[in-house]
Amino acid sequence: MAAQSRSSIHNNVDIRVGDVVIITGHRLGIVRYVGTVHFGEKNEQYLGVELKGHRDEQYGCDGTVDGKEYFKSKHEKSGVFVKSVSRVVPPEEILKKLAELNEQLLLCTCGSGYNQITANVAKSEPSNNKNGDNDDSKQQDVPFDPYYGGQLNPDSSSEESAEI
């Protein structure tokens, strides 16, 4: 399988490998292949698209058709070949949406939403009280880390918790 760096013009838009596109059925995917295919008309351009969050049970593949590999998809039936796309999603639009979602996550985990999460975690954990009584007022309120699904260490510095 040769890496494809060619582009194709669909609906007056230059489409390249790596572009994020929306195809029929409002399905989101990444272009993994641009070029001709052995099962299509001679010199006709196809796009190999790896669907994200979707599978095509009827026409999907893993990027291989009749033993010929055009690209590799992570999941069986998540690759499709199309002649056109509904639209190309520009990187700026993706970053804007990602920033909006990140802001919503921060709002959810900060302020009153953050306190609600830590309160729910504290209630769901068994008491660490050595006396055996269930006096939760003695429990320390430990923040919950939404990214890793666990408690933050209250003694850790902000630099340590910022590392990935």
TrEMBL record:
Protein name, as recorded: Noc1p protein
Natural source organism: Reticulomyxa filosa
Coiled coil regions, renumbered to chain: none
Region listing for Disordered, in residue ranges: 123-164
Gene3D superfamilies hit by this protein: CAP Gly-rich-like domain
Signal peptide: none
InterPro entries in UniProt: CAP-Gly_dom_sf, CAP-Gly_domain
Domain CAP-Gly: 46-83
Top-level division of the source organism's lineage: Eukaryota
